[in-house]
Amino acid sequence: MSISLVEVAGANLRTDYDSDKLNTDFMGRLGMRKRYLPARLAISRSLAMSAPISLSADELEPGKVIKGDTLFGTGTALSVWLALIVERAGEPDVDIKRLVTLVGAHWRRGLAKLDDEWEQAGADLGQFIRRLVDVAELPSAGGRLPTSGGAGASGATFSSGEIKVPLGEIGEDVATKEKVFWSLNGKGGAPHTAIMGGSGSGKTVMAAAMLRSIREQAQVPLLAFDFKGDLAGFTGTKGQTALGEAFEAQVIEPPRMPIPLDVLALSQKDQFGIDEAAMRFRESFSRLKGSKLGSIQRNYVHEAASRALSSEEPCELRHIRDRLHEVYQEHEAKEDGAVSSMEELCRFPLFEPKFSPADFFQKSWIIKLPPNVPEDSRTIVVNLLLDALDQYLNGLVDAETSRDGARGLRILCMVDEAHQILGTKLPSLSRLIRMSRSKGGVVMLVSQSPDDFSGEDDEFLDNMGLVAAFATNAKPGAAARVLGKGANLTNLQTGQCFVRFDKTTKKIRAW
After folding, report:
1. pLDDT at 403
2. What pLDDT sits at residue 124?
3. For 261-292, what is the HEC assignment?
4. Locate the Helicase HerA central domain: which residues (predicted)?
5. Peptide bond into 314 cis (omega under 30)
6. Cα radius of gyration rounded to whole Å, the chain
7. What are φ and ψ of residue 368, in 5° steps?
8. Which of 445, 460, 477, 495 is deepest in the core (most CB within 10 A)?
9. Would you say 63 and 16 are in contact if contact means Cβ atoms under 8 Å apart?
10. Cα 405 to Cα 37, 186, 219, 401, 408, distances in angstroms
């Protein structure tokens, strides 16, 4: 089977437009708040049917996309779904394109079947559920489902109510002169932020002011990536408390000092967990400029990572390097760019496994990655840290919700000069933006232009609760896509920016 879990996790899955509307109807009928829940039920219902699936849907208008890891989860859950769909297909080789077609067909057929059963149940929820129980041959009365995750799966939260953030040091509507606040964790909203602007426009001033305000209202920890090297001491235009001091953050500058995190820690220690972790490492490693992995090299790196993760605890990069040498020797392969890149990464220790992810991500850290740090070192540090955060945070139970519907916060993740990593389609960054809201995660990306986001998925910016853009020479189409028609980013005055939140766009004075 020429398909991997990483491909499935990042795939854009959809059914047709009419079935997607029916999917939305079932959300209301069943009291579900997430689109993937009725989709899972529908696909399960279709998989339970013995008749062959009809795949002819080329003439149908497509519905909205759900990412693979949102629809099916990760780890063992993703593996089980993939196995069931492929087994039902009865085909010797299923690639990602074929899988997308199969998922859409099962989704469509399952929804149609569920709709028939809903009508036969007289639109009565209790009767409908009993029909599904009968189909699944489940006991009509059963015990409680087992829970997973153990004692560390709950995670600490650092807020207990709505956090209203002023937009910058001034945060004033240009037209009305009124103060403008954004509800970071309010009911139904997304907590993530994208701030854009040319050099010297004040985007970092706005970001730092917002972060200080969040910290004043909640002692939430910060993980910040600093590609310029001046973030920790940043005080803004009015001499406020330095950002590093406000968060009591420890500043780490690899490779001068290693990051004290067990970055390759396994979330699941069975074979599925090992294979998934090995694939994640391979995908991160393949993004290094010097590696340029072919299909054979990808297999070698995966095998080396799998061996190291199976035998070493804690597992470090040097262990994967040693196993990679072994794999090349066993296959009598000539050492190439993959091996030399691993050697270069291990020249200095980038990580030191002092803290578990649970302990590390409850403290504040500013990771300095200025231009003098080798590019491959910067890339692997960002990739592995974001991957570790994604695995930790999205593996927790949902964060607590206050009476006003505000979601509790667990961590802020800020990337300054984010154009350094945007466009590379990092799966972990995409998952954090799409999935971490319910877990108490907040992502803030500070970049130079709306153009920087053009390499990401179409729905990337749609998951941002707040988008702000200062003066920049961005293409008009990119600016309009982000902020709506009429947002001219070339004529903004000093300290002014356009902001979009709650489906409206305003011009404000941020500083």
Report:
1. 83
2. 79
3. ECCCCCCCCCHHHHHHHHHHHHHHHHCCCCCC
4. 191-381
5. yes
6. 24
7. -85, 125
8. 445
9. yes
10. 21, 6, 19, 6, 9
pLDDT tens across 242-258, in order? Answer: 999 999 999 999 989 99
d(CA 308, CA 285): 15
Distance CA 427, CA 448 (A): 22
35-49, 86-100, 323-337, 469-483, range with the lowest pLDDT: 469-483
User: Looking at the domain covering 164-261+357-509, what would its CATH class be?
Assistant: alpha beta
pLDDT digit string (tens) for 91-122? 878 889 999 999 999 999 999 989 988 887 78
For residues 5 and 9, give the distance between their C-alpha atoms in angstroms, rounded to a whole number.
6
Reported residue count of the chain is 511
Q: Which tokens belong to 232?
A: 């920790």
Placement of tokens 């932020």 in the chain: 193
What integer is the mean pLDDT of 43-53?
Answer: 83
Spatial distance between the Cα atoms of 64 and 425, rounded to a whole number of angstroms:
20
The whole model's pTM is what? 0.71
Report the C-alpha gap between 26 and 209 in whole angstroms. 42
Distance CA 375, CA 290 (A): 10
Query: Tokens standing for 102?
Result: 């199969």
Q: Which amino acid is at 123?
A: A
Which two three-digit tokens encode residue 473? 């020479």
Alpha-helical runs (H) found in 63-199: 68-72, 75-89, 96-120, 125-136
* Rounded distance between C-alpha atoms, residue 199 and residue 218, angstroms: 30
Residue 314: half-sphere exposure toward Cβ, Cα within 13 Å: 16
Q: Burial, 363: exposed, middle or buried (Cβ in 10 Å; 0-12, 13-18, 19+)? A: middle
Which pair of tokens denotes residue 300?
Answer: 């070698």
Residue 186 tokens read as 């309010």
Of 40, 267, 2, 273, give the one whose Cα is nearest residue 153.
Answer: 267
Rounded to an integer, what distance in angstroms lies between the CA atom of residue 8 and that of residue 4?
Answer: 6
Gap between the terminal Cα atoms of the chain: 56
Q: Which of 410, 440, 450, 415 is nearest to 429 (CA)?
A: 415
pLDDT tens column, 180-208: 999 999 988 899 999 999 888 999 999 99
Structure tokens at 408: 């509790």
- Using a pLDDT cut of 70, give the percent of the chain over it: 92
197 contact partners, CB below 8 Å, separation of at least 6? 203, 448, 449, 469, 470, 471, 472, 497
